[in-house]
């Protein structure tokens, strides 16, 4: 009895292995970026831009569309974090690379590819920098214009909520640091949005519970050539135990020796946050050990807003009103930095 079961399980696990191998071969990638849903991604086919009459400097693409495709069944997403423009067709298009062309010119396209994603077809246009886009449907084409964000905005900053997704950061009393960081960043967004300055743009590394890589967070700032980069984190005592230690600490890049440097911006932030939020000033520290500070080409700081291992401060940090005061301090700091010439 036992022997027979063993034989049968050997045979069936063999069949299963063969089945899995075949499946893996025919399904090049299974991806769950969408969250709970597993989406089957088809093979990526590289798309070349057909040399057209458009000069590269015009930064214009003409994406030929099959009949019956227009704004009703096409969605366009400009993913700043990965510098990729996704043109998503509601239904996959057969032989896209052979039957349709992309014409135009641009100096900023790293590569283009077409793949299926479940029912849909996706044209992914990967850029070598962050671009804004404008587009329209005309004469059977989707015309996309790539625009340098600096041609639209006078001031550009990047705000980063530390950790996210499966990386919670510090965890105290069941509260995740990633959640506090995001709460503060959402308040920062509210303050900047309410100010309504159309000449200022804030790019956020995340506004939900995702976990961009450290390189993606830093690249967003470098590839948009931001004026300032601010990462929001929260602290915990070395032992991890609750104690009296509390206050705001700001890390800066000591390697940044420009006149309008990371250290001066950290100082401005400290003055403004301690003023609006009333937190204790724990001073500035060299943050060149931190990836997002070290590899940023722009004045970058990382703010440890408060200590999650202090009961009073943990209560403050989870309170939206306190988060709002911190956000107002950061807004005031950014305004002061621009006044000083950043
Ligand atoms: Zn952290």
**Quick one: biggest sheet?**
6 strands, mixed
Count helical runs. Answer: 9
Domain unit count: 2
Distance between the terminal alpha carbons, to the nearest Å?
Answer: 79 Å
Helical fraction equals 25-40%
Indicate the overall shape: elongated
Strand-residue fraction? 25-35%
Q: Determine the CATH superfamily of the largest domain.
A: Zn-dependent exopeptidases
The CATH C-level name of the largest domain is Alpha Beta
Bound molecules: zinc ion
**Class derived from helix and strand content:** alpha/beta
SSE layout:
Blueprint: H1 2-26, E1 29-31, E2 39-41, E3 45-46, E4 49-51, E5 60-64, E6 74-79, E7 84-89, H2 96-99, E8 102-105, E9 109-117, E10 120-127, E11 132-138, E12 141-147, H3 149-152, E13 155-161, E14 171-172, E15 175-176, H4 177-195, E16 200-204, H5 214-224, E17 228-235, E18 248-252, H6 262-277, E19 281-286, H7 291-294, E20 300-307, H8 311-317, H9 320-339
Parallel strand pairs: 4-8, 13-16, 13-17, 17-20, 18-19
Antiparallel strand pairs: 1-2, 3-9, 5-8, 5-12, 6-7, 7-10, 9-10, 11-12, 14-15, 18-20
Helix pairs in contact: 4-9, 6-9
The chain binds zinc ion.
């Amino acid at each position: 009895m036992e022997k027979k079961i063993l034989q049968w399980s050997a045979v069936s696990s063999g069949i299963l292995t063969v089945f899995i191998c075949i499946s893996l071969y025919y399904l090049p990638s299974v991806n769950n970026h969408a969250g709970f849903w597993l989406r089957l991604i088809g093979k990526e086919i590289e798309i070349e831009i057909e040399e057209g009459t458009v000069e590269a400097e015009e930064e214009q693409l003409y994406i030929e569309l099959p009949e019956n495709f227009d704004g009703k069944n096409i969605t366009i997403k400009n993913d700043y974090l990965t510098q990729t423009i996704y043109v998503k067709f509601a239904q996959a298009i057969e032989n896209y690379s052979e039957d349709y062309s992309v014409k135009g010119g641009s100096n900023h396209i790293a590569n283009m590819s077409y793949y299926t994603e479940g029912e849909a077809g996706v044209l992914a246009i990967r850029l070598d920098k962050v671009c804004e886009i404008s587009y329209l449907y005309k004469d059977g084409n989707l015309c996309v214009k790539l625009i340098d964000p600096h041609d639209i905005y006078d001031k550009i900053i990047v705000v980063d909520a530390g950790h996210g997704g499966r990386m919670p950061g510090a965890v105290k009393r069941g509260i995740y640091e990633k959640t506090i960081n995001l709460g503060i960043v959402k308040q920062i967004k509210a303050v900047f949005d309410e100010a309504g300055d159309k000449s200022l743009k804030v790019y956020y590394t995340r506004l939900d519970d995702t976990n961009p890589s450290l390189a993606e967070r830093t690249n967003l700032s470098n590839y948009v050539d931001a004026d300032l980069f601010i990462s929001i984190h929260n602290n915990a005592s070395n032992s991890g135990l609750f104690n009296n230690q509390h206050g705001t600490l700001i890390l800066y890049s000591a390697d940044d020796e420009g006149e309008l440097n990371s250290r001066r911006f950290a100082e401005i932030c400290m003055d403004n946050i301690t003023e609006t939020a009333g937190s204790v000033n724990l001073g500035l520290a060299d943050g060149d050990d931190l990836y997002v500070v070290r590899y940023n080409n722009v004045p970058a700081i990382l703010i440890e807003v408060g200590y999650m291992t202090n009961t009073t401060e943990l209560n403050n940090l989870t309170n939206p009103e306190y988060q709002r005061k911190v956000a107002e301090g950061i807004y005031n700091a950014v305004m002061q930095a621009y006044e000083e010439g950043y």
